[in-house]
Amino acid sequence: MFFIKSKHISYILILFLTLFLSNCQKNRVIKSHGIIFLEKRQALLKLNTSNKNDVIELLGEPHVKSIKEKNTWLYIERTKTRGNVHKLGQNIILNNNVLVVKFDKYGVLDEKIFYDKNKMNNHKFSKEVTENVVKRGSFVESFLSSLRSKIQTNRPKKK
Known about the structure:
By secondary structure, this protein is α+β, with helices and mostly antiparallel strands. It has 4 helices and 5 strands. It has a domain at 28-122. The protein is 29% helix and 24% strand. Strands 1, 2, 3, 4 and 5 form a 5-stranded antiparallel β-sheet that branches.
């Protein structure tokens, strides 16, 4: 290619790297699950004045109804997006909200508890590793023992 000179190659390389490394999409792709804008909607619910019909009108049917407590409903909102280039495109959770709504025996809103991503408990797990007392043989040993058992089962029996 006689029309491409060495200085043009550097410009083409810089242009290609710029297009490749910058995301082609300027707007974030947001995937929502559940009731969107749950935090704003729950603020419209009034304790001791709103009833079940008001809650259904505002938030819709609940995602989960408690089995033990008949009048406890749960609403969930989860919003995820893709991470930046340094996160290698892993999903990042933007919102992880849960609204617990409790009614009295007449169906009037008695209590509402809102949990967001920051209020949820972070459970710490033990980093200790349990030793396995039963030792299995190596792959070669187990392969040879299975091969030996197959040979012995297919061998003709002596009379």
